[in-house]
Amino acid sequence: MYEHEDNFKPHSSHVIPTLIRKVYEAQRRGDKTLPVWGDGSPTREFLYSTDVARGIVVGTQLYSNQDLINLRRNYKVFICNIVKLIYKLIGS
Questions:
Q1: Is residue 83 part of a domain?
Q2: For the chain, what is the radius of gyration of the CA atoms?
Q3: What's the gap between Cα 36 and its chain centre?
Q4: CA distance linking residue 12 with residue 15, whole number of Å
Q5: Which residues form the domain of 25?
Q6: What sign for the dihedral angle of Cα 35, 30, 43, 10?
Q7: DSSP assignment, residue 38?
């Protein structure tokens, strides 16, 4: 999950803000490489926090049974593609 005012603290941020911070700091230092975990091949699914909140509200309004409701988008993103997009958006 991610949100508009996400947490960018080094020891408690999640994937997207961590990668944004790492790319930004690497560019400021002029680094030629970016220290990330692994090779970038793992995938993740991300939901925006407001969408999650809306999904919970709609789910409680429309569903009366006790079955689980999955809010995921079923759209997986490779970590390496997130890093490439961040580099592109930040301007390197």
A1: yes
A2: 17
A3: 15
A4: 10
A5: 15-90
A6: positive
A7: T
- Whether 77 shows a pLDDT value over 70: the answer reads yes
Angle, CA of 15, 19 and 23, to the nearest 5°: 180
User: Contact at 8 Å (CB) between 90 and 27?
Assistant: yes
Copy the structure tokens of residue 89. Answer: 């958006």
- Give the global pTM: 0.68
Does residue 10 fall inside a structural domain?
no
Strand, coil or helix: what is 57?
Answer: helix
- Would you tell me how many other CB atoms lie within 10 Å of the CB of residue 61? 8
Contacts of residue 38, Cβ cutoff 8 Å, sequence gap at least 6: 79
Which letter, b or e, does each residue of 6-32 get, where b requires 16 or more Cβ atoms within 10 Å of its Cβ? eeeeeeebebbbbbbebbeebeeeeee
